Amino acid sequence: xxxxxxxLSAGALGGALGTWLVRGLARRAGFVAxxxxxxxQHRAPTAYLGGVGIAVGIATTMLLVPDTCGxxxxxxxxxxxx
Length: 82
Description:
Blueprint: H1 3-29, E1 32-33, E2 46-47, H2 50-64
Antiparallel strand pairs: 1-2
């Protein structure tokens, strides 16, 4: 598996896990869009903060995934393009 594929997979997994965790937190804290009987967009309360979960997951992944180049992770010049 190439370094690029590994980073993309780790970022996707981190984003999904972050979204799942923040979704539960949003439901417990009451940050939900409640169903509206006048304009029925959804049937059950829908949690807000999904974007926060994705951002937290990807940021955590960037901190935890070891650098494959021996340089700081922010310098991605060694990662080959897809």
